[in-house]
Amino acid sequence: MQQHDSLKADYKFSEEEARILATLQPKMSELSDKFINEFYDYIWGFGSTAKFLKNQKIIDYHRTKIKAWFINLFCGKYDLQYFMYLYKIGEIHVRIGLPTHYVNSAFTFVRTFIIKNIQESIEDEESRLKAIQAAEKIVDINLDTLTSSYREEELSKFLSLSKFEKTILGGLKKFNSYINFFLAGSLALVAFFAIGLFVYDIYLLFFSDIGIEKGILTVLGSLLVLWAAIELIHEEINHLQGKGFAIGAFIMLAMAALIRKVLIYSLSSEKGNDLLVIGVVIVALAFSYWLVNVKNKAPL
What we know:
With 300 residues, the protein is mainly α. The chain is built from 12 helices and no strands.
């Protein structure tokens, strides 16, 4: 059994379902313009889409190819040629460095769009359910095939390493995981001391001659540091779950600590120079935080 036949067998994709998809093609062809417009609205929200679609010529070419792929999704003939077509698309994704996250997310839109329009166009319940089932399978088969290129690329890179290099790589991964857990524990300790600082400032507010105005500002500053520490722990948890390292959270914690000093020093006429220096540092940190957010979230 050839690989593409084995893949269809694993998904229990039948010839009847292939015929059902073929009957849907005329309707989906009519919807192809609507699909591509909504698809582009969806993927443009990824943030880094412009990194891969750099100019209008590339965009027009990409729209044409995506539209053709969508119509071909209902061709009804899923043979070796069809799967070679998908493999080629997957290889292009790998070559340009398109993250698998974007591919998976885009397929969520494709699935939703198809199911919604099947539900609206087929009145008979039994026929509608069969059509949805067939569409779900072919979408999953396409996603499986496209992402297989990423798995093959990772596997080929790993197999090309020597035994010594594999040992070093494995050791570094373990060491990195230990460091990440150590960092998470350290952040939890920082949050614990931030709570202690907040409680101590509350104590000073009520049981010392610090003054109500300075006491309240000090408490607010401690609360700000505690909030930043909690946010940093949240980002580290995301990092441990496989998401990117949030340098912005560290910048935010540094800003919170400096803002606390500003709140305290603002009541002292003798701290003018210190306030000026801290203010400049806060502005620099704020600019750095903005740059990090622009790079990670804004379209290029």
